[in-house]
Design brief:
By secondary structure, this protein is α/β, with parallel strands linked by helices. It has 12 helices and 13 strands. It is about 35% helix and about 20% strand. It is globular and about 65 Å long. The two termini are about 20 Å apart.
Length: about 350
Amino acid sequence: MERLHIAFFGPTNSGKSTLVNAICGQEVSLVSPVPGTTTDPVRKIAELPDLGPCVLIDTAGSDDESILGQERQRLTRAIMDETDVAVVLNGAEPGTDKIEDLLSTLKENGIPTVQYQWGQSIDSLIKSIAAVAPKEESKYLTGDLVGPGSNVLLVMPQDKEAPKGRLILPQVQILRELLDRGCVPHSCTHESLPAAMASLAHKPDLVITDSQVFGLVNRTIPQDWALTSFSVLLAAAKGDLRAFVVGAKAIDALRPGARVLIAEACTHVPDTEDIGRVKIPAMLRKRVGELEVDIAAGNNFPEDLSPYSLIIHCGACVANARLVRSRIRKAAAAGVPITNYGLAIAYLQGILSRISLP
């Protein structure tokens, strides 16, 4: 999520795949003289001089007029939502210019853009990208909620949705951050929470829980213990916390029959305990009554948001901040409130005002 996302745009056969392969020094994308060889976006993680860790994204031609061209262009437009820097290649024919509309769209979306001309060195291109890349100040997910020496209790359920043999990404990220900040983390599941509390010599400075057990943890720990969740911390780091809080409160305006969008930044095979597809819809229906709930996974975020009364977004642990913020802007433009899993669950369980926000 913290990698710079660099996407390569341009007409078919302009050399996007060739350029990506040249930058990576290996065959990442299939190269062919046949127009439309690149169909779906192709991603490659790379470590580049002056830029550090990056995600390079090869896209289909912006002028693809094949049978599936319209769908390929839709996927290419979706990539813009996560693009930190765009590299644009012109058509191969001398004197032609097929990119004015593309450049205009990138500008409208506020995406820093570099135009590449064949013959330009890779080193020169990388320096050009570095010159326009957004310089976001590095910040902690835990914000000012903790500091060196803070005792932090992590409540981390390991249910059927948890990957076998490892922790989910937000748990890993927060645990590593706490260690880097000189904190003293204590970890448990919700089942072992009472035992973990009994083992502590002093009350922790902060309790961070998985959002799906917000209510249970809130009922178990003393009310003077500071409480937040992994999802809430991600909401503050990547999105707009104020907009998400307003969106959570919009749950009160839902009426039976309303249409709600559950948006996931990643794609995964759901299980019976899935928080976004099972647990949150069940909480909403218990409170509001029958609702129509749609699921949008990965890049399949709807272009038309007008049918929805509310959007509830995942924590976006695998997505960059630009993707989350672009979706917030789209929701605002459509007049649809948006929140995220952690804040929605806290509001539904009546503990939003109890939550510590970074």
